[in-house]
Each structure stands twice: as C-alpha cells, then as structure tokens.
Amino acid sequence: MDIKGFRFSAVEAAIKKPGRLDLALIFSELPAEVAAVFTTNKVQAAPVLISRRRAKNGMARALLVNSGNANACTGEQGMADALECARATAEALGLPDEELLIASTGVIGQPLPMERFRKGIQPLVDGLAVGTLDDVAHAIMTTDTFAKIERRQGEAGGSSYCIEGVAKGAGMIQPNMATMLSFLVTDAAVDPALLRSAFSEAVEGSFNAITVDGDTSTNDTALIIANGAAGNRLIEAGTPEAAAFLALLHDTLLSLAKQIVKDGEGATKFVEIRVRRAKSNADAKKAALAVANSLLVKTAFFGQDANWGRIIAAVGYSGAEMEQDRVEIRFDDVVMASSGVFAGGDAEAAGTEVLKQKEFTVTIDLHVGAGEATVYTSDLSYDYVRINADYRT
Q1: Ordered structural domains, the chain, with CATH
Q2: Which of 56, 167, 241, 295 is deepest in the core (most CB within 10 A)?
Q3: Local confidence band at 63 (pLDDT 50, 70, 90 cut-offs)
C-alpha cells in the first residue's frame, strides 16, 4: 500500500562534492499537521532555529533538506541563506514561506554554496513527479553506509493508513531532543495534540535511547507530517486507535533508531544495554547511558574482552543510586557478576563467546527499586577514529 498525498524528490546539487544525491524535498499535496523535536545543544544551526519557530504553528506542507553542509555557526549570513533557500522553494511550490521547514546536515562552520542551491531548487520541484522516499533517504546520508528507511501500515475506523520514515546518522550520535535527522510522513488523520504527544513519547523511547559516541549534534531534527489523505476517522486520544497509532509510530522510530546504531561509524557490534530494578526510571537511564558511552566499555566490546569490571565502574560513577554488593551483570544469559562479585572463569569463557556475536545484550540488575531503561549502543573501533580524523577531507 502506497502512502497517499505525499510526493518526494532528490537531486545532485554538489553541495559538498559531486556524484551523489544531496538535496531533497518532501511535499504534502494537502494541508498537514506537523510535530517536531530538535536538538537541545545550545549551539544550533540556522535551519534548526527556523524550523523550530515554524513548527510551533503546527502546520507544514513541505520540508527541504540537504546533506554536505550543516549551515551551523555561520552567523547572520547563514540565517539569511537558509531563509533564501526556504523562500525560493516555497515560491516554486506555491506555498507560504511559513509552511516550509528546512533541515541540513554536514560540516559545521562552512557557508552554504548558494549558487548550487539556487540551481537545484527548480529541478528538485520538477522531480516531485517521479521521485521516491528512497531517494530522500539516500540524499540525507553523510558518513552513513546505507540508507535508513521504514514503512508501517495501520487501520483506523475501517480505513488503512501508512507511516513512512527515513533517518540519517552514523556518528555524532546521542540525540537529546530532541549528526541525526529523521523525517516521517503519515496519511493518517490524527488529532494535532495527540500527534505532538505521541511523537514526543515515541522519540523518547527510540532516538533518545541510542548513542554511538555520546555527542549531541547542532542539527538534530526529528519530525512527522500528517495530512489525513487516508480518509480515516480522526484518531483521538484515549481511543484504541490512538493506542495502535502510538505503538506503530514507536515501532517505526525504534527501527530507524536501531539502524542508526548498527551503522555507527566503524561499528562492528550492536549492543542493547538493559538496566533493571534501579531506584527510578531516570536512574536506570543514567546508568545505561554511562555504560553505553564509556570508551573503556565500548573498546572492550570491540576487543571481545568480557571485562565486566568496566561496566560496574561506569554504573558507579553514573550518578544512579546503587549498592555494589547487590549488582548483577549478564551478557545475554551468562551471569558475569552476582552480588557485585565475579562469577568465575567459566563465566569469563562463556561471556567472551557472547561478545563474539555481532549483536548481544548486557543486563545490569541493581536490585534497589523498580526503575528500568534500555539504551542501544555500538562498540568503538579503529575505524571510528579514522573516519572522524578524516571527516572534513
């Protein structure tokens, strides 16, 4: 089933270098609601500032996005350039400026190559007749090694609807909204207040539960545009349809979030960090993020070293309430430590075998309460250093 009322386009504008799609457009044929979350970094790119203000209106018909240049830390000229790009695109689409959002990703501190943007806008609009969401997914990639795209189908009041989304990100990943971008579209008719609350809740359990390197970008943006073209009865809070919509939305975002971690720069492992029986959910997340971001833990994962001591140390400095002699740590089903004490040589050998897998789970049971959290992370390899040492060249 194809999504209704949306069109997509992407072109090669050679914003950073030629040879790839790097300028994309998402367009709703109908008036649409929007919900969005943005980076909490105090350094924010011009497109974030513009889109944050416009998204507050709750209405948007189109999104212009580029890769290859973040348009961050570019001063008044950067803001003027972003506004010009948005204005020219809105004019070509026949839309008011305020109904067009804008996003960028790439190198910080470089001015936009405006002549390339100007030349790309009309071909971009013309391409709406033939473009696909897959084209958009490819156009927003930077150090990504594969395009990240997800589709789901739901039903409300006897009418079927779709949720489709794309994301980019491989490094500079620890969203806190909220470099990560994600754009979703749905043809479902959704109450605006429900759309905002559902999207924020889904982001918290997906994009705000991943980390590759602990860095929060200047450009992080996640948004959803809903145009109601499916013709379903309005999905309203407190109904079974609302619960189903939230579950579907969370599933879509979590899949995209996991794809980002699996594509982490230089990553060879995908690791689920579960913290159980913490004092509170907030404490559980503190502990999980401390483990997930520990360079010593991440390098141990890469080296397939069952060094559980690095994990309990990270929990200890996380700020979460814990009692050392209550902590249990497992690699998948292998108990590495119980009551804060090493489980022995057999556990070491079995735990090492777990770490040889491409995907595994680390469970940390604090035994001090009922709080829990799950965070998804990757290992830290030689290639992460190589990729980021050469990022601007």
Answers
A1: 6-262 (3.60.70.12), 270-389 (3.10.20.340)
A2: 167
A3: very high
Provide the 10 A C-beta neighbour count for residue 49.
Answer: 15
Which percentage of the chain shows pLDDT scores above 90?
A: 81
**Residues of the chain by 3-state class (helix, strand, coil), percent to 5:** 35, 25, 35
| 26: enclosing H helix or E strand | strand 23-28
What confidence tier does 73 reach under pLDDT thresholds 50, 70, 90?
very high
Could you list the active site residues? 179
Beta strands in the chain (DSSP E): 6-11, 23-28, 33-38, 62-69, 100-107, 148-156, 159-168, 181-186, 210-211, 221-226, 270-278, 328-331, 334-338, 341-342, 359-365, 371-378
Burial of 286 (0-12, 13-18, 19+ CB in 10 A): buried
Tokens representing 61? 């018909």
Residue bearing tokens 């033939």: 130
Amino acid found at 252? T
